[in-house]
Amino acid sequence: MSSLKKNFSYNVIYQILIVILPLITSPYLSRILGRDGLGSYYYTYSIALYFMMFAMLGIGNHGVRSIARLRDDKSACSEEFWSIYLFQAINATIVILCYILYLYIFSGYLLYLQIIQGLFVLSAFFDINWFFFGIEKFKLTVTRNIIIRIISVILIFTFVKTRDDLPTHILITGGSHLLTQVVLWKFIGKYVNSPKIKLENIISHIKPSLILFIPVLAVSIYNTMDKIMLGSLNTMSEVGLYENTEKIILLPSGIIVAFGTVMLPRMSHLFEKDDTKQIMYNIDRSMEFNMFMSNALMFGIAGVANLFMPLFFGEEFAPTGKLVLYLAPVIVFKAWANVIRNQFLIPIKRDHIFIISVIAGAVSNLLVNYLLIPTMGALGAILGTVVAELIVCAIQTINVAKELNLKRYFSYFIKYFIFGLVMFFTVKLISLLKYIILNSFLILVLQIIFGATIYLTLSFFLYDNKAQIIETVKNNIKVIFNKQS
């Protein structure tokens, strides 16, 4: 069995890669395409993404959980894989046909871009990442994705030169995404055989996939629908501002998602073995690690945003500095809820709590968006997202209050929140050097160095019990880097 250390490392690389490579190209594309061009790209992409989500339903989480439980039995695992995939293939085919019908009916000035975005919808037909995540073969998916995505970055810098090259940009990103799904089929034969699949086996996956799709759809309302509403109720320029703000928040969230993705199959396996002691230990260590990381990232990013955003994306995107400050709290909300969801609710199949929470978040997000986007634009969408993430986190937490040690978890949050707050004000004080030092990049470097030093010093040496903090740090590292069977 792959070690947790390796799986976490590979999945961190995978999740950060998804965000880092766009961050590499974003400063370039922001200046080449501008706010309107960038907004048009993400508006059309968000529509295509909805079709892609319907093509996959809840197969991602359902597939990981199902394969993780059967991975030690190749015969049973093979039967499970093919029955899940055949259901996916049938459903994806129907959705792809619906997308073609959508293109025919809703033609407009963005039609050409929407046609090319269809590559993302097509990729859902070939997506079997869930199988390799279920058997914990993260290296296989990561290495191939790295190669393909790096090539796509090179192609963007080579062929996207003017605002008229937006279709070329979509072709490169959509084509590379499709290719990352297709190449995994070369390796599937090593892990599964070809059993006979009965129709009832395929049908059996409809209900669990639909159940897990409900939260996926609900979450998409405040992760994807906001861009569509921004483009419809306001301007493409506001979509561009919102997207670049979200990019900066997605990087730390990617690290958190990586941890949760690795732990989901591991925790499903532990619940199957009824190893309560190890389950509670993992959740406790995971929560402290997530609070340590998320508070550092939330306050760190918020502290440098006003200087970093225009320096990184260009002066046209200077308003995003303020937007980042408002959106940063979702890093902590996501970190907290990620542990509750991926390490407790989903592994024990308590899906109804997960579903109720995200539906409540989606409804609140739609309401806030509808009220605020027409007048506040991107800021309105951000406030809607923050409210939604807070509600999701709160509902999931309340429903596990009798089973998990929430008092202990809140102590982790409060401790690192205070340390992060001190770091934030330190970073803000350093920003005053702009009146003395005219080099913005130098001030940014000083903010990062002093901010990180303050946070780590407080975390490791200035807490009441130094020995306890040192042990806590060791445990934070151990939960990731200690090999477990």
Q: What characteristics describe this protein?
A:
single chain, 485 residues, mainly alpha, 19 helices, disordered C terminus
The assigned structural class equals mainly alpha
Biggest sheet record: none
Shape: globular
Instruction: Please give the count of helices.
Output: 19
Low-pLDDT runs of 5+ residues are 476-485
Beta strand count: 0
How many structural domains in the coordinates?
Answer: 1
Q: In angstroms, what separates the terminal alpha carbons?
A: 6 Å
- Along the chain, the helix and strand elements come as HHHHHHHHHHHHHHHHHHH
Q: Please report which band the strand proportion falls in: under 5%, 5-15%, 15-25%, 25-35%, 35-45% or over 45%.
A: under 5%
Mean pLDDT: 85
Share in helix: over 70%
Radius of gyration: 22 Å
Describe this structure in words.
- The protein has one domain.
- The chain is globular, with a radius of gyration of 22 Å.
- 82% of the residues lie in helices and 0% in strands.
- It has 19 helices and no strands.
- The C terminus is likely disordered.
- The longest helix has 53 residues.
